[in-house]
Amino acid sequence: MIRGVLADTGPLYAANDEGDAHHPLALRQLKELARDRREVLVAYPILLEAYSLLLYKLGRHAASGWLAEVSDASFLNPAPEDYSRGLIMVQALPDQSITLVDATLAALATRMGLDVWTYDHHFDVMRVGIWR
Do residues 39 and 74 touch, judged by C-beta distance below 8 A? Predict the structure, then answer.
């Protein structure tokens, strides 16, 4: 069994943006994860989303530096059924603005029995385990 957490884009971004309201929390949580020897797992859709956010908000240098930092992370590729379950989740909650990326991450986390490291309340709405 994997002893880790699936990272959402929010904490990955916050850890790199000193101006983000969650920056101090993200840094504390990274230290806690390291102390507890919990691996931060990154799904490929989150890798793409986080890189794009860093690129457009903090620039090429920050985005490239972040890619170098996460290059030795453990990456997970969602299975086709994760995308299908994510789509079903989005459609089942039409009153929520849940992205397909988040719903796919929720489906992957559920299938793998992992908690998600996130600051997004939509994961609570989707009834996914949250690492806090």
Answer: yes
d(C-alpha 109, C-alpha 115), whole Å: 6
Cross-strand bridge partners of residue 116: 6, 130
CA atoms within 13 Å, Cβ hemisphere of 72: 1
Predicted TM-score (pTM) of the model is: 0.93
81-100: string of b/e by CB count within 10 Å (b at 16+)? ebbebbeebbeeeeeeebee
Q: What is the mean pLDDT of the chain?
A: 95
User: What are the backbone angles phi and psi of residue 114, rounded to the nearest 5°?
Assistant: -110, 150
Give the relative orientation of helices 100-112 and 44-58 as an angle to the nearest 10 degrees: 140
Structure tokens at 125: 């709405």
